[in-house]
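Minutes, structural biology subgroup

Action item carried over from last meeting: produce the structure token record for NADH-ubiquinone oxidoreductase chain 3 (Narcine bancroftii). EB confirmed the sequence was re-checked against the source entry. Recorded below for completeness.
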Amino acid sequence: MNLIMFIIALTALISLILAIIAFWLPSLKPDNEKLSPFECGFDPLGNARLPFSIRFFLVAILFLLFDLEIALLLPLPWADQLNNPTLTILWTTIIILLTLIGLIYEWLQGGLEWAE
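Output recorded by EB:
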């Protein structure tokens, strides 16, 4: 019980110290850019409905696709301890080839060209 109370007190102390540092560490004199309502580079007084290019969304979807591929391939180093590691290597190769074929198709169709 004494160890649990020590861990709780230590956790509370570290959290309090980090909160105090996070409160006092930032600059107290922000510049004009930080005081503006938007820091993203858009004019806050202009039109709020600026059109986005569909290519932006295509690149975002491709990023998510390859990110998902990485997540699927993360357990691969442990595949050699399975009963049949060649089957796992086969499925991995199929996943990589499918995404590679999709990337080549998008590249040839001009879907990765940012400038129109």
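Discussion: Residues 48 and 68 are 33 Å apart (CA to CA).
Next step: EB to file the record with the rest of the batch.
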